[in-house]
Amino acid sequence: MNKIFNRIPLPELQPCGEYDCGRNSFMLKYDSTEKVDFDNTCTLLERAGFTLVSNLSLEQNQHRTYSSDITVHIYFCESEKTMRIIADPNTNRYQTVPAIRSGDTTLWQFEVDHSLIDCGMCYIIRCGNGSFFVIDSPHIYSVNDDIRICEFLKKLNGGKKPVVEGWFFSHSHVDHVAKFLDILLYHKDEIDIQAVYYNFPTTNHRDRNHWAESDRIVTDRFERIIDESPQVKNIRLHTGQRFYIDNIEFTVLCTHEDIFPNSIADYNNSSTALMMEVDGCKVLFPGDCSNESDKVLVRRYNEYLKCDVVQMSHHGHSGTSPEFYRRTNAQCALFPITQIKFDEELPRQEANRVAIALAKEYHIASNGTVELPLPYKFGQTKILPDETFEDFNGIYNLWSYEYTDKRKAQLYNEFLRRKSGK
After folding, report:
1. Which of 110, 146, 203, 297 gives 216 a disulfide partner, CB atoms 3.0 to 4.6 angstroms apart?
2. Please, are residues 280 and 303 in contact by the beta-carbon 8 Å criterion?
3. Residue 305 has what pLDDT?
4. Cβ(322)–Cβ(349) under 8 Å?
5. Exposed/middle/buried for 87, CB within 10 Å: 0-12, 13-18, 19+?
6. Are strands 233-236 and 192-193 parallel, antiparallel or unpaired?
7. Is the dihedral of CA 71, 247, 240, 198 positive or negative?
8. What are the φ and ψ backbone dihedral angles of 162, each rounded to 5 degrees?
9. In sequence order, what are the beta bridge partners of 106?
10. What's the chain look like in SS3?
11. Residue 224 class from Cβ within 10 Å (0-12 exposed, 13-18 middle, 19+ buried)?
């Protein structure tokens, strides 16, 4: 057992496994437990002088976070009869109470530059006080999107320097973190980024040999750059934690820690799923959650998954299940993907068809930035002009797939129509 657990009182139970969470954090998992075991362990922590930071019940799941010289997060899941204790020495504190609502809240599905790549996603939320919360960022092949995002935020802020109170990352695939790193490295004087929120697995993970080399390189680079940016608070998220950015509530529903002892050979299962709520409106961001994450989410949550707006997991590729979207029952589905890939995959992706059938509207990121005033109401969505278009020669050189001249002409005409707003 890692020596970090010498610093906290533990129950007289035998853990079934120990997990390296990364960043010198570790987790003990206990099977065949009851809520009384969770309650008794919380009592041990409190008697040892740990201060209760948060206490949250989500359906039949109990979560508490304690603080001392290290942060301890403990949670019990009734559906699994499991208890997890996470010792985290390297995280900053997060805001646990909301601010008084001072203005309108708006969500944008940002049109990433898809000229050379069909993946990547970026969501921008303007809080009531005019600050921003951003989710993920485009691929490295969206070459100018660090500039485009900076300009977009400045425009939304009336030309003044934007304040990003938090930037959340679902996982460290290059199409979710690359352009943020460019912004932090080359545009830090243009945007005030106050904190990052994430939870990535260690690059020494037992499943690392199944990952692409780029996954390890990008994760190491991300954490190195964050460590070299002391002005940016580093907040690691664990399941069942709830934090606030101004008037907006965020709740963590799943991280890679929940997959253990199962495999995250599919790196998409390292995604953190996040529920956002503002003025009674819920928006669910599962990132690239895949089959193992889906098992956790569907097993633990029923009514809590219901939301007004859902981001389609893994861009609408094979991600979460049809049952997941039935439970979300969202009125609006957001696809961070290109129209081309959406059309190709719709016939074989039942989950996409289920989400679309339940929704009143759905939007594909390549067709223009989508603006959603929150709380969400059907009919208030605004689609901004389409800004980017496929570089067919570049796509062929990179990915070796080609389109017929007829299909190219059709796609280009559709782009011109969207760009003109007709």
Report:
1. 203
2. no
3. 98
4. no
5. buried
6. unpaired
7. negative
8. -75, 150
9. 126, 373
10. CCHHHHHCCCCCCCCCEEEEEECCEEEEEECCCCHHHHHHHHHHHHHCCCEEEEEEEECCEEEEEEECCCEEEEEEECCCCEEEEEEECCCCCCCCCCCCCCCCEEEEECCCCCCCCCCCCCEEEECCCCCEEEECCCCCCCCCHHHHHHHHHHHHCCCCCCEEEEEECCCCCHHHHHHHHHHHHHCCCCCEECEEEECCCCCCCCCHHHCCHHHHHHHHHHHHHHHCCCCCEEEECCCCCEEEECCEEEEEEECHHHCCCCCCCCHHHHCCEEEEEECCEEEEECCCCCHHHHHHHHHHCCHHHCCCEEECHHHHCCCCCHHHHHHHCCCEEEECCCHHHHHHHHHHCHHHHHHHHHCCEEEEHHHCCEEEEECCCCCCCEECCCCCCCCHHHHHHHHCCCCCHHHHHHHHHHHHHHHHCC
11. exposed
70: pLDDT strictly greater than 70 = yes
List the domains of the chain with CATH numbers: 3-88 (no CATH), 105-383 (3.60.15.10)
Beta-carbon contacts of residue 124 (< 8 Å; ≥ 6 apart): 107, 108, 110, 132, 133, 134, 135, 149, 152, 153, 156
**Is the Cβ–Cβ distance between 180 and 193 less than 8 Å?**
no
| Single-letter residue type at 234 | N
For the entire predicted model, the pTM comes to: 0.96
Q: How far is CA 212 from CA 176, 203, 330, 394, in A?
A: 15, 11, 33, 23
State mean pLDDT over 166-173. Answer: 97
135-159 per-position pLDDT tens digit: 999 999 999 999 999 999 999 999 9
Rounded Cα distance, 75 and 86, in Å: 9
In 10 A of CB 254, how many CB atoms?
25
* Residues, the chain: 422
Q: Is the dihedral of CA 394, 399, 403, 407 positive or negative?
A: negative
**Encoded tokens for 53:** 């930071």
CA distances from 340 to 335, 347, 382, 409 (A): 12, 13, 22, 13
Among residues 134, 143, 207, the alpha carbon closest in space to that of 174 is found at 143
- Phi/psi for 299 (5° steps) reads -70, -35
Compute the distance between CA of residue 302 and CA of residue 16 in angstroms, rounded to an integer: 27
- pLDDT of the residue at 422: 66
